[in-house]
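tokens incoming
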């Protein structure tokens, strides 16, 4: 009898334990379902902080955040386990968003059509643009008064201005040792020469090809005279400027400290850098320069704006997540985000941090081909591939040919 009682007690205890485990699993499942998980990847600290604050304030439920670190190959699986992922647009975002859900079309109603194109992956809208940077041209503010130099609307006008800017030690300057500055300038010149559709074609081919040298003379577009233009034409224009002293011959190896010094003493007429970097300059230096879009080789309708976007994608969707996304791109929240990050909002009705952010939105909205990211971000996933690509372009700018740099290893997992 005693054994039977013990047996019954054990059965009851086991059943109770199973019940408790089931209940615990249900509780965890319910908690997980109610918790929005958000992952950030390669997002600047100030932007991440601003977005975290808005998400926590506007989501009706618990939120968990994580900052993913490492190569795309190392974080892809982990990223897919989060409800939302926020990162820069480009090849790495495409690699991370293989399981991303298509987003409702009404999320894009608050932004100009051109700006919404950063939401496309192929033919589907899977990315929601949240903020834009701008690879801009900055001109010394008193140049128009001192030398009667109008803001250049074309590259020929820019070159004409340079000829008149005799009192500047360096007519044009870019701190190209920093790859962000280097690719900002090279990308802007390339888009200027080949146009928006040609630029997108080059990005697509770079992502597929293992032989960069074979792409140098590939037809990307034609100019108004019907002459074929290529990536080599864009780089040759920079080489011409180097040879003529318009830009320092070795600009691609010069550091940011040189840029800051030249701007401080107004020794350069035009400089090129991301708007996000310009925001880090001391105010007394930054205020001496004003920003405009990089001028085209010739007046044309087919233009893009080199303006990388911070985007959001969802691996899981529901009404609450969609409502939060809609709030994040609303005019009020976009104005707050712009004021904190000093970047460009996507909402057409949002206030902006200043005229530079407002102008960048106008340039992007008026670009027929829309905003695009930089060449390396559009085409490459691996930091190793980007480093080799940068070395190959620097080699071409120095020697006029590519040949001694190791071939790019495409699709590397680092």
């Amino acid at each position: 009898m005693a054994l039977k009682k013990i047996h019954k007690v054990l059965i009851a205890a086991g059943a109770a334990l199973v019940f408790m485990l089931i209940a615990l699993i249900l509780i965890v499942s319910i908690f997980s379902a109610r918790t929005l998980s958000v992952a950030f990847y390669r997002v600047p600290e100030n932007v991440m902080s601003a977005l975290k604050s808005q998400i926590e304030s506007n989501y009706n439920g618990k939120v968990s955040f994580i900052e993913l670190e490492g190569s795309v190959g190392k974080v892809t699986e982990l990223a897919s386990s989060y409800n939302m992922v926020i990162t820069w647009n480009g090849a790495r975002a495409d690699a991370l968003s293989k399981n991303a859900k298509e987003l409702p079309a009404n999320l894009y109603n608050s932004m100009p059509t051109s700006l919404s194109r950063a939401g496309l992956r192929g033919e589907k809208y899977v990315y929601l643009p949240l903020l834009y940077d701008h690879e801009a041209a900055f001109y010394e503010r008193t140049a128009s008064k001192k030398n009667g130099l109008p803001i250049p609307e074309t590259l020929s006008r820019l070159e004409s201005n340079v000829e008149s800017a005799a009192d500047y030690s360096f007519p044009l300057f870019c701190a190209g040792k920093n790859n962000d500055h280097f690719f900002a300038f090279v990308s802007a010149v390339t888009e200027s020469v080949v146009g928006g559709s040609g630029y997108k074609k080059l990005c697509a081919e770079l992502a597929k090809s293992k032989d960069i040298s074979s792409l140098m003379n590939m037809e990307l577009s034609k100019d108004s005279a019907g002459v074929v233009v290529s990536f080599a034409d864009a780089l040759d224009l920079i080489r011409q400027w180097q040879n003529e002293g318009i830009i320092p011959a070795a600009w691609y190896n010069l550091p940011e400290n040189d840029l800051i010094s030249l701007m401080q003493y107004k020794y350069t007429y035009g400089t090129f850098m991301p708007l996000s970097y310009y925001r880090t300059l001391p105010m007394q230096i930054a205020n001496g320069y004003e920003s405009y879009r990089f001028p085209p080789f010739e007046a044309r309708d087919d233009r893009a704006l080199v303006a990388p976007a911070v985007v959001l994608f969802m691996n899981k969707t529901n009404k609450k997540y969609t409502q939060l996304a809609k709030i994040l791109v609303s005019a009020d929240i976009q104005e707050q985000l712009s004021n904190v990050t000093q970047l460009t909002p996507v909402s057409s009705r949002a206030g902006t941090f200043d005229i530079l952010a407002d102008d960048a939105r106008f340039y992007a909205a008026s670009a027929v081909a829309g905003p695009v990211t930089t060449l390396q971000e559009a085409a490459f996933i691996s930091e190793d591939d980007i480093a080799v690509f940068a070395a190959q372009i620097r080699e071409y700018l120095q020697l006029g040919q590519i040949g001694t740099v190791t071939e790019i290893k495409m699709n590397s997992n680092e």
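note: Residues 2-34 form the longest helix (33 residues).
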